[in-house]
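[stage:ingest] chain + small molecule (adenosine-2'-5'-diphosphate)
[stage:ingest] validated
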Amino acid sequence: MKTLAFNNGDQLPIIGLGTWKSKPGQVYQAVLWALEAGYRHIDCAAIYNNQSEVGQAFTKAFSDGIVRREELFVTSKLWNSNHRLEDVEVGLKETLRDLRLDYLDLYLIHWPVSFKKGVEFAQNREEYYTYQDVPLEQTWEGMEACFANGLTKHIGVSNFNSSKLNEILKTCKVAPEMNQVEMHPFLPQDTLVKFCKEHGMLMTAYSPLGSGDRSSSIKKADEPSLLQHALIQELASKYACSAAQLLIAYHVARGIAVIPKSINQERIHENLAAGAIVIEANDMETLKNIDTKYRFIDGTFYTGPRSPYSLEDLWEKE
Ligand code: A2P
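[stage:predict] done
[stage:export] tokens:
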């Protein structure tokens, strides 16, 4: 399996298992199947509300000798309600308890959006903090403290655009090492990829298959389909692989980590096997010029009259 190197030489397996939307009752088996199949990178988050089942799978895999802790790369993410300096470590320690680990490999700020303590998803203005209330630099200071005390080997962010990253880069002691964002041929994120590369940051692509299993509340009826797009299907048949495998191999070709979610044993295997597919440069160029541009996780759930945030706060201007 191809890996990406952090600045200190630590290696990140380029394909990981995503666990967003994997329900308790499904995720334990999915993680075990993935570890048995050879996955060594598992992507988690507190808000996925399934970390204790993921932790049970890790414990089982360690005790059965499927994998050793030091061979496994585990990422998790700080939820929006733990952004104050004093709450960051609390959030990470809860995650470690749920995952039954004593350290993470990578901890990310999940969103550049802040909720009051105890709020799972802010519904009105009073449940949000603004950037004035809790500056991102404050949350980052908390992340640096977690790094310094060994609770996580690497720290980074998710859903950050270059201007938010610049805010952190201006004051940080330890620079973010990862930016995890939505990425696929409909949303290639060229500007952000260039920025992250220039600043020595790795990237991870989430929703690489379009996350078709999202709840209807965050899904539009007329969304385009990545898996059914004619060009993607055409290239998949050229490489004798599935559309999903082509979409995964696209990130491998760009040197970007990718975390397809699956709870199905066959698809878990299929997705890992995509690491062996090498897409030729001219086909990458064809994918670059694909006719559809689309963001599936559009962030509108953080905006509107009952929120202090707007979409301009979130996304890169392309
Ligand atoms: P399932 O979990 O039943 O396999 P994303 O990673 O973009 O969030 O997409 C996840 C969605 O894609 C889930 O509905 C998942 O279903 C499905 N999926 C995962 N792997 C494949 C695959 N190889 N082929 C088709 N669909 C897949």
